[in-house]
Write a structure and sequence with these properties.
Elements: E1 12-14, E2 20-22, H1 23-26, H2 32-56, H3 60-65, H4 67-78, H5 86-118, H6 126-141, H7 144-155, H8 159-195, H9 200-239, H10 242-251, H11 255-283
Antiparallel strand pairs: 1-2
Helix pairs in contact: 5-6, 5-8, 5-9, 5-10, 6-8, 7-8, 7-9, 8-9, 9-10, 9-11, 10-11
């Protein structure tokens, strides 16, 4: 760096008591404390990675060196996909979509009812609020795959198991989200309306629900997207849909037909993701 006298060296700036100090010392983009914390976190992360690979006996280098066998399997057995069973594939795809949409619709009704009971702004009962919130947390913290294993033992293989598994988990998620949305809307509108003498049913129907509706719809669309992914996995354990068809192809070693099902799943998920993102942007304007 060239200073005013033409000599090369660090740029000087006036300091206290007429002194000078380097420009680099004056402005620090990252503080020393943040830099030290980042280095410590990186070291801890590396130590945990080494420990986990040793505990699980996972060899990253060996996994990288064995990639050739994986790609040989993909391009020999999976590619090109088979187009001979598009009729059964279409039916399985539609079944998966109906499972996700039906489960989300039923879960929305159940979650809306439970959220009214769980919202402290609407139901002034701390014990009931706590019970509803705990119940919703239990439902959403148990994976749908676990519910599917339980329900398959009770109902057998079929789409009923898939729909019920999705309903249980989605109800827990939506109940928690709806409660948070209602409480947030109540903080903004509840007190002025109650001070004006409005009754609780009028406040809920005329203020809280219209204020909360964009958030409700955004989370419902998000759960539709999640349920389409989950229904594919649930089908592989006997819950119907394209997952069941995919597992059947794999057990028959018909990998070309299985790759067609995988591509169909990818197209569905990408398409639904784009559609729900577009709808959320339109709603949240």
């Amino acid at each position: 760096m060239i200073n005013k006298q033409g000599a090369r060296g660090p740029l000087k700036t006036p300091g206290p008591a007429g002194g000078t100090r380097n420009f680099e010392d004056k402005i620090r983009i990252v503080s020393r404390e943040s830099l030290k914390a980042s280095i410590v976190f990186l070291i801890i992360l590396i130590v945990f990675f080494i420990g986990s690979t040793g505990f699980t006996r996972f060899n990253p280098i060996g996994a990288l060196l064995s990639q050739g066998e994986f790609w040989d399997f993909i391009f020999t057995d999976f590619v090109p996909p088979s187009m001979g069973r598009l009729g059964s594939l279409f039916l399985a795809v539609m079944q998966t979509l109906y499972m996700a949409l039906g489960a989300t619709g039923i879960s929305t009704v159940l979650a809306l009812f439970l959220s009214f009971l769980g919202s402290s702004a609407i139901t002034r009962s701390p014990a009931l609020n706590a019970c509803i919130r705990t119940f919703a947390s239990i439902l959403r913290n148990i994976p749908p795959l676990v519910w599917a294993f339980i329900l398959v033992a009770a109902f057998g293989i079929g789409t009923v198991v898939g729909v019920l598994s999705l309903i249980v988990g989605t109800t827990g998620y939506l109940t928690r989200f709806f409660i948070e949305i209602l409480d947030e809307a109540a903080d903004e509108t509840m007190e002025p309306l109650m001070a004006a003498g409005a009754a609780m049913p009028s406040i809920v129907s005329q203020a809280l629900l219209p204020e909360s509706m964009p958030g409700f719809i955004a989370w419902i669309l998000y759960c539709v997207e999640l349920n389409i992914r989950a229904s594919t996995i649930l089908g592989m354990v006997g819950a119907g849909g394209i997952g069941l068809l995919l597992m059947g192809y794999i057990k028959q070693f018909n990998y070309a037909a299985a790759s067609t099902s995988i591509f169909a799943v990818a197209v569905i998920i990408i398409g639904v993701n784009l559609l729900t993102n577009y709808l959320r942007k339109q709603i949240m304007r």
